[in-house]
Amino acid sequence: MADSTSQQSPRQAPRPDTAEAPTRVSDAEREAAVERLRVASVEGRLTFAELTERTEKAYLAVTRADLEGITADLPAMGAPGADPALPAPRRFHAVMGDCDERISGRISDALEAHAVMGDVVLDLRQAQVPTGEVEVCVTAVMGDVRIIVPDGVRVELTGYAVMGDRRVAVREVPPGMRVPVVRVRAKAVMGDIKIVDDEHHAPVRRALASWWRQRRSRGGGHGPGPGPDG
Asked: Which residues fall in a compositionally biased region of kind Polar residues (predicted)?
């Protein structure tokens, strides 16, 4: 007669999950990444726009993988520095005319912009800014001055306007972030001075360009013809 007590196989213990959870970053690690970006900017490896964009991403990083992606193309701290960019011009004038400058050199000293019955446009996004700070002294007399800065910078505007206007149209930076700064000392007499970031500069054109790129990436483009930004 067979034994009524059947032998049961031992229950297998649950297998441990071998997938490691992403490691969350600390505030100290974020600050270290921001300092690494600052050093890269001093060495001329990052433009003003790149420094600002990556600084914002570093503060918003949640995992170490996020931070590693921000600094993956930068050398380790202590590596030989790159040759600095050539100094950018410091003075820009428009007297009964126009001055439109996209600065790509190194900004080490304060810039000056003067518009007298004319228009001055300064684009700072591709400049090299070793200190992470830019100072601009602006005078507009019956003229207009427009300064284009990267998204995410902090703008400090001082000065006065007499029968004119001084305006800042940039995205507000959350408190506590050590981000690049643009300081503008503005004097407007029957003229306008405006500081805008990339988000507020030509928004319609950028929206069309973004739509076109997304459409092409989905295979919806017809032929190799130029898009709205081409």
From this structure: 1-11
Q: Read off the tokens for 109.
A: 């000293």
Find tokens 């400049």 and name the residue: 127
Pairwise CA distance, residues 111 & 180, whole Å: 16
Cβ-contact 35, 55 below 8 angstroms: no
Phi–psi pair at 56, nearest 5 degrees = -65, -40
Alpha-carbon distance of 57 to 116, in angstroms, equals: 40
Give per-residue pLDDT as tens, 149-179: 999 899 999 999 999 999 999 988 888 788 8
CA distance 110 to 122: 13
**What distance, in Å, lies between the first and last C-alpha atoms of the chain?**
89
Name the pTM for this structure: 0.73
Q: Which of 97, 136, 143, 99 is nearest to 120 (CA)?
A: 99
Give strand ranges (E) for the chain. Answer: 91-95, 98-102, 111-116, 119-123, 133-141, 144-149, 154-162, 165-169, 181-189, 192-197
